[in-house]
Fold:
Amino acid sequence: MPCRFALCLMVLSASLLESTGSRCARGSTVTLDFESYRRDDTDLHEWGSVVSIDGFTLTAMHPVPGNSTKLQSLGTLRRDFAGRTALYHGGSTGVITLTRADMGKFSFRGIDLAELPSFTFSGDPIRPPAGTFAVDFIGFHSDGSTVETTLNVQVFADVPLLQSLAVTGFENVVSVHWSQGPGGHYEGSGIWNGSPTHQFDRVVLELANPPTVSTPEPNTACLSVVATIVVAGFALVHSRGRNREVEGD
Structure:
C-alpha cells in the first residue's frame, strides 16, 4: 500500500509540473487603458508629449517642426466620442512611440482602434464615408531588426467605435511606432479626399522579462510546490510504514 501511494503521488506531481510549468514561465500581461484620462464634458483635452502609464511610456513626435506633438483625448459628452476614453496624436502624420519605462523588452499583442473625425472650425466633426482604413505599425528589436504589420480599422456610418485588433509577430521588441493619419475632407463635389485619423485604447502587452522583487522565479516556485508535495507525501508513507511496524511488534 505505501508503494502504491508513493507511485500515485509521483504521477500527480508530474502532472502538476507539466500543467503549471508553461503557465509559470509565461510573462505577465499588461493592458494599457486610459480611463484615468476620462473627462465628462465636450472639450478636447491635451496630455502633453509624453504619457507614462503602468510601466510604459507613450511619446508623441512630429517630423515637421511647429506641428502638434500632444497626446489628446475627447470628452465623453462629445457627439464623436467612441464609447471609451482613448488617446490620439493631435498632429496629422505625427508619430507615436511606445516603450517600456525601464527600456526592457516586451511583446505587442493587440490594440483597440477607432476612426477619429476631423473637425470644422466650429468644432463639428467631419466623418469619412463608411469603409476601412489602414494603420501601419513597426516594432524594433534590440539588434536593430524590425517587424511590421498593418491593421485595418472599420469606419461605421453613425459614430466611431473602438475595435479590438490582434497583433502577431511583435515578440521581444524594445519599441513600437505608428503614425497618425493625414486626415481628410470633402471636396466641393462631395468626394472624400484623404485618410482618416485614429484614436487608440487598450494596448495589450506582455513583458518579456518581468522584474522580480525578493520572490522566487516562476519555474522555481512551481518546482518548489511540487517538491514540497513529494517530500511531504513520502514522509507520510514512511510514517505509516513505521506505525504498522510498531503495531506488528
Q: What stands out?
A: The chain is about 20% helix and 35% strand.
